[in-house]
Structures are given as structure tokens and as C-alpha cells.
Amino acid sequence: MNRRDFLLTASAAAILPTASHARDHFELIAEPVEAQILPAGEYSATRAFGFNAGLPGPEIRVQQGQQLQVLLRNHLDEGTAVHWHGIRLQNAMDGVPVLTQDIVDPDNTHSYQFAPPDAGSFWYHSHYLSHEQVARGLMGPLIVTEASPPDVDHDITAILADWRLDQTGQLTDDFATTHDVAHAGRMGNFARAFLPDTSLKKGERIRLRMINTATDRVFPLNLSGLNGKIVALDGMPLASPREFETIDLAPAQRVDVIADIETKLEIAMATQGGNYLLGQIEIDGDIEPRANPIPTLPPNDVPQPGEVTQDLVLTMQGGAMGGRHGGDNIWAFNDLSDLQPTPFARFQRGETARIRLVNGTSFPHGIHLHGHHFYEVQDDGSLGDLRDTSLVQAAETQDILCVFDNPGKWMLHCHMLSHQVGGMKTWVEVV
Ligand code: C2O
Ligand code: CU
């Protein structure tokens, strides 16, 4: 397959997430789908997994604080479970087999109910054999809207994903090969952004929510055709909007941009061979641009760190070129691979902990904590961004500060899903 062919022809048109519905009852049917991942006309559809006949799954849009009920129906030939990534919800709704619920068997259903406390860009995905089920397409956007949303002409979700396809456009089934797991993960040979089928006018203001749903790929994103700022990361508003330069978006991370359209919008990934176009939206007409500056989103009500009562170190180990480690799988945290019977740490509800994430490996890792957001601590010791997934580059260290205020058993794992299946996962308990 020639990536250049895709580069030249991949337009935004191929697949649309199902239209949004402002309602609080949803049904998600996990099922095999035929999805037009590659450009329509030239390439056949890809047999994949999806929700409600589509891929990505339908956009679930709910207002902040509104009670949401989602009935999952499993029409696959294998088990599944759905995790609501980044949502600070009750533990029982977290969608993690064994830790928080049973696997949903074929032909069975499971009901999820929660009221998302934070407005922002989130997503949902399978948390059962996720390195394979997410790569096959079991994911979709979960958008939580502010009570009074910022003034924009379009609110656009871009689902970023990559796919490993054979000559006929079908997914290869080489999941979790030792080589992929021990290196940077299972990278696709085709990548794209799923965008709505719409056009823009020069001068319009848009909110663009980019969600990295790839199993393993960090997207170095470049945007062109607009002038604006980053307003949120991982669903959490920035205290003040930030200039958009190339941003490395790790698997599961999100970035929201509010910007004014100048020319055709292009979302691209930087590669050694130049920009690889992921998606674009054409221009059709123009309007008078707004004079007011890019707005700051209202902050979410997250707990502020108190006195640090536990100081912990989580060292990532293993992989190729990583030397020896004590875990019994390819990757480990602190000499242990896979979920152990006892948690990495136990917290009294409300405790503030500092966790030093030490990357002792030769690869980047995106470390994700369920049920909470945490602050990345900056080099000068001040609080940085509030995230649910932190990208830690090879041989680097990142301190995070977290208020563990959500009772239950929460996974803490690498969101490079090939690393997760290779053992880089643990859990914490809040009592
Ligand atoms: Cu996005 Cu443990 O997951
Ligand atoms: Cu990793």
C-alpha cells in the first residue's frame, strides 16, 4: 500500500460519526461493521468493529452534570466492556473487566449510568482486549457541554486513528506481536481524522476537539488554515488559552482548539517525510470575523491538591533495549507486570499524593489514571496542566500530583495499548 496515494486522496468525506443527539438515553450496539476507512470509490470497505453500525461510534453529547444512561448491547462474537475515558464517575461504571465489572458476554447487555461532572472532550472505548478491540474500531466521542458554551459557529470533533491494513484494505490480525509490544506498539500504515461532512466559511470561529483514539501512535499534530489557541487538554480548560504549535498528542489524549478560519482547515501529522494529511474541511464563502479574543473556558470543579501525604515512585521498565527488569511480561511497573492482587497504592479518600513517573525504558509511554485527573508538576515545582494521561518520553521523569477523592479500584496503565497488554498496568485503591 502506498501511503502517498492515501495522502493525496484522503478527504474528510469518507465516514461520518453519527449525528449528535442531545438526550440522556443512548444505546450502544457493539457489532461487526463494514467501514469506509480508506477513500471511498478507490478502496473497498474495511471489516471492523463499531457501535451502532458505524465507526467511530456515535457522538454521545450530554450536558455537564446531566444524568446519562447508556445501554450497551454486545452483538459481537466475543466479550466486551465500555470505559468512559477521562470521566470522573463512580467506580462501578468505569467499564474495566475484573476490576469494576464482569465482561459483557455475546448477546448480553450492560447498563452504564453516570452524570459527567466535567465539561470537555472525552471518549469511550472498549476496555476488554482493548489493544485489539480499539484497533478494530470500538471507540467513539463523548462530549460534555458547558451550561453556557463558548460562542463559536461550529463545534467539530476530529477522531484521530491509525489502521494497519493489507493490500485489500482489510485489517491485519497481527495483534500483540512480540515485536510490536516490545517496541513502540502496533502502528498503522494508514492514519486519518474522522471529521463531520461540513464546510466552513472564512472568518468563522470553530471549536475543534481532537481525540487520539489510536492504540499506540503519538500524533505530532500540525494545524493549518486557522488562527487560534489551545483552550483545553484532556477535557480540562486551560487557565488561559495557549498558542498552538506542533503538539504531541499521545494515545487517549485530547486537545481542544478555538480558532478563526482563514483558509481550508487541514489537520496533519508531522513525519520525517513532511506533513501527512489526516483530514481537511473545505471553505465555502466568508463572514466578518469576530473581533473579540479567543475565550477562556470556565474551569471544571476539580479538587485542589492539599498537603502531600504519600510520595510514590512508579518506574516504567522493560521493552526492547530496556535491559533487565523483574516483571514476568514484556513491560513492568516497579518490577511487576500485569494486574496484581494488591494495588500499587492505597489512599484514604481525599489524600493528595505525588507520584514520580520514571521512564526507565527506551520508548515513550502515555500513563493514564482512571477516575481522576492529576496535575503535571512543572520543572520549577509549580502546577502544570491538569490531565488524565501524561506522556513521558524515553528516559524522562514526570511528577504528577493527584487528589485521590474518588472511592474504588482504579487502573493506572500505559495507554499505548500494546504496552498495556504487554504488562504495563497496575491499579490503585481509594478507600
Ligand atoms: Cu482509555 Cu484504561 O483507558
Ligand atoms: Cu507504554
Strand and helix layout:
Layout: H1 3-9, E1 21-22, E2 25-35, E3 46-51, E4 60-63, E5 68-74, E6 82-85, E7 109-114, E8 120-126, H2 130-133, E9 139-145, E10 154-163, H3 178-182, E11 190-194, E12 200-202, E13 205-212, E14 219-233, E15 236-243, E16 247-249, E17 254-271, E18 274-281, E19 283-286, E20 308-318, E21 331-333, E22 345-347, E23 351-359, E24 365-369, E25 374-377, E26 383-387, E27 389-392, E28 397-404, E29 408-414, H4 417-421, E30 425-430
Parallel strand pairs: 1-4, 2-5, 4-9, 10-13, 12-19, 20-23, 22-30
Antiparallel strand pairs: 2-3, 5-7, 6-8, 8-9, 10-11, 13-17, 14-15, 14-16, 14-17, 17-18, 20-21, 23-28, 24-27, 24-29, 25-26, 25-28, 29-30
Bound molecules: CU-O-CU linkage and copper (II) ion (CU).
How would you characterize this protein structure?
The protein is mainly beta. 5% of the residues lie in helices and 47% in strands. Strands 10, 11, 13, 14, 15, 16, 17 and 18 form an 8-stranded mixed β-sheet that branches. A hairpin with a 2-residue loop joins strand 14 and strand 15. The chain is globular, with a radius of gyration of 20 Å. The model is unreliable at 1-22 (pLDDT under 50).
